Amino acid sequence: MGSGRMGGLELGDARRTRRLIRLVEDLAAHPLGSIPVASGGWAETKAAYRLLHNPALEWREMLEVHTQHTRERLVGQPVVLWIQDSTELAFSTPPGIAGLGRLSEAAQHGMSVHPTLVVTPQGMAVGVVDAWRWARAPQGKATVTERVRWREGDRIVADLAAVTPTTRLVDGADREGDIRALRAYAARRGTLADWLIRARHERKTAVGDKR
Length: 211
What we know:
Helix content: 25-40%
Strand content: 15-25%
Number of helices: 6
Largest sheet: 7 strands, mixed
CATH class of the largest domain: Alpha Beta
Number of strands: 9
Number of domains: 2
Oligomer: single chain
Distance between the termini: 52 Å
Order of helices and strands: EEHHHHEEEEEHEHE
């Protein structure tokens, strides 16, 4: 690993890289713990928060490095499942903090994340290939069209399926992903990846049955 880099990510400072590696390892060892719990000490906790506050760290760049390694791990896998879903990150801090928005519960505020997780049918995690993050605007104000997150996820699956013909990609979603436009998009591209969706309504099969 070169100085100032983490698997291809340019951080500009070797100490920053080492701190990031340490933080990732600590969080991986305590996946359900907070940063203070995972860090194991006040000095390490302060260093972790200082690192995360550093503008030199751009989450999209770090994710892209991880995504590249995820693509490499697909080699030799006959079938992989691409699981999309959204989750809300609620913060108990006082309202008014920049970057946060309303959640499903009116009294809560935070942000939403829509990751695409790649796993094998045996349950082995291969990695994350995309994460769409957003904060909802106040009630009554214009906000981003949230369906975009599903379209972006489907596009990424199709793009990779086009260059990995020996691996069968199965795009999975719950009923929120039951969007006709996405299935039309898949058809236009020749259905490069399979898809599995928990439908919102019953569907007729080719022989006329309802499932």
